Amino acid sequence: MASFTVGDVRPAGEHDIKVFKNLMDDDSTWKKVFTKKETVVYVKNTENSPIQMVKVKINAVDLSAADLYDTLMDPDYRRSWDKYMVEGYDLCLVSPNTDIGYYLVKSFPPFKNRDSVTLRSWFQYENEYIIMNHSVFHAAEPPKKEYVRAISYLSGYIVRKTGPSSCFFGFVTQSDPRGKFPSWAVNKIAQIIAPSTVSKLVKAARAYPQWKAQNSPSIKPWIYPEQNKLAPLNFEDILSSPDFEMSAKDETEEIEVPEDASSTIAETSENLVDDDKGCESDKTAVSNTMPEVVEEAIVPQCAPGPAQRSIPIG
């Protein structure tokens, strides 16, 4: 496992990068569960949670590593392709390449919206880009009763240049949407949703240069730190212990996933239903909406940072 644990507030260092790259590159302890063309999906059990770690690898063509990295980091562009995003903003700057941010995504009735607070570090090398994050606890964003606080144990990307217009794209995540979702259901759906999530990101990245040319093309604070106007971290805002019961179910969610829904969930996960369609029964509602909720938990935890919003500190 990576050296970070949930709640750690510090910039990622060389050891963290080494551990994360090993997770990405060493497949010997992972189980391959999906292969299609240039996309491979793996899963891995860990000791810290019943939620499995999921890894996706893809070799992308007609896409530069730089454009994919910018897509992952540009908060304004995310609003144009992320249909689940409700709001997001940065809370503070931990270091020139590390921040803490808040992110809220929509769910579908009867499930509550999910939110998260994560620390993210990013690194740019000559032919490689790395982004990784995990959940932390910040006094400015305590859990809200109308949402369920999702947990990112570890999530991140590695983008490597393989040619002028081609790149390797690796995605690792271990994220828990919590609420009334049992771990077996999250694990089943995550390994199906993950490659779809990566495909959406690749598609969005191919359209990024044209979009960016019309939208503040010179503003890239993830590359130019002097453009970042966030307030610095105040350690008095960091909580030393969780401000919610991490292992508890949210009993205010109206539906619990039934144990006999496994086959139905597997089928509907592969072909997500129309958001506007109604559900005929509680079981149908669970199987039809849960894939979207799990996808929401996967995408925001390790995808690009939210728009900046300075907050009072101290």
Automatic annotation (TrEMBL):
<keyword id="KW-0969">Cilium</keyword>
<keyword id="KW-0963">Cytoplasm</keyword>
<keyword id="KW-0446">Lipid-binding</keyword>
<keyword id="KW-0007">Acetylation</keyword>
<dbReference type="InterPro" id="IPR041951">
    <property type="entry name" value="STARD10_START"/>
</dbReference>
<dbReference type="GO" id="GO:0016020">
    <property type="term" value="C:membrane"/>
</dbReference>
<keyword id="KW-0813">Transport</keyword>
<keyword id="KW-0282">Flagellum</keyword>
<dbReference type="InterPro" id="IPR023393">
    <property type="entry name" value="START-like_dom_sf"/>
</dbReference>
<dbReference type="GO" id="GO:0008289">
    <property type="term" value="F:lipid binding"/>
</dbReference>
<keyword id="KW-0472">Membrane</keyword>
<protein>
    <recommendedName>
        <fullName>START domain-containing protein 10</fullName>
    </recommendedName>
</protein>
<keyword id="KW-0966">Cell projection</keyword>
<dbReference type="InterPro" id="IPR002913">
    <property type="entry name" value="START_lipid-bd_dom"/>
</dbReference>
<dbReference type="InterPro" id="IPR051213">
    <property type="entry name" value="START_lipid_transfer"/>
</dbReference>
<keyword id="KW-0445">Lipid transport</keyword>
<dbReference type="GO" id="GO:0031514">
    <property type="term" value="C:motile cilium"/>
</dbReference>
<dbReference type="GO" id="GO:0006869">
    <property type="term" value="P:lipid transport"/>
</dbReference>
<feature type="domain" description="START">
    <location>
        <begin position="26"/>
        <end position="210"/>
    </location>
</feature>
<dbReference type="GO" id="GO:0005829">
    <property type="term" value="C:cytosol"/>
</dbReference>
<keyword id="KW-0597">Phosphoprotein</keyword>
<dbReference type="Pfam" id="PF01852">
    <property type="entry name" value="START"/>
</dbReference>
